[in-house]
Request: fold
Amino acid sequence: MSSACDETSYFTPRFNEAGLITAIAQDAETREILMVAYMNEEALRETARTGRAVYYSRSRQKLWRKGEESGNYQEVREIRIDCDQDCVLLLVEQKGGAACHTGRKACFYRRLKSGSMEELEFIDQTRLFDPAAVYKKKT
Amino acid sequence: MSSACDETSYFTPRFNEAGLITAIAQDAETREILMVAYMNEEALRETARTGRAVYYSRSRQKLWRKGEESGNYQEVREIRIDCDQDCVLLLVEQKGGAACHTGRKACFYRRLKSGSMEELEFIDQTRLFDPAAVYKKKT
Reply:
């Protein structure tokens, strides 16, 4: 089960075959999980260097400087990595209070109803911003 | 930015091209992120049905009933899903207190030193079990 990267002090993030690593953003104070995204090496380096979260957008195929459109950027307090170094965890301060593109503070606003495999219930319907106003359509 | 799965009450997890979805286990009480793994549809269904976390091991290419070797299984309190339904979050009670195969309570026991892109510092060195004793070599 063990491998060399478990106990080393060398930061050796393991990017997948697409050159990406999973990145979780967690609120540094409340410990709420805000969002999950991906980083390529450039995004991870810029995040570490600047202290602001930068991801890689798979749909747009480019760096995604979180908050560049919405203004809701993330100040990064810590970058942690897991045992096998294939996932990073950012402890962040979320500016504007909302990490999710729907305007909610976090992306995990629904849960599976107990006993169901089909039905979700919403646990957060508070919008901290109006997505339609923030993300203006580029047509 | 928006898509149909953002606001629906239908649970429609989006598995990737390998048939997997990212799954985060978070301690239901302390909100510490314990581990990140993958599930296939069977693992997710069994988790929802039984209330115990089941993942899919990519290295062993089979279902991984967390705790089947170590006894440190996870009782699942809630299954949440994110806005675009490509990541699930389990709120769990970790039996034995340790989720990581290294014997530590969580997998994120190292952080990048401030200002470095190379050096990690350990933030948790407490082993709640001895990995060598728990995971007996099968040779």
Notes: Chain B touches chain A through 48 residues (CB under 8 Å). Chain B has one domain: 19-134. Residues 112 and 120 of chain B are 4 Å apart (CA to CA).
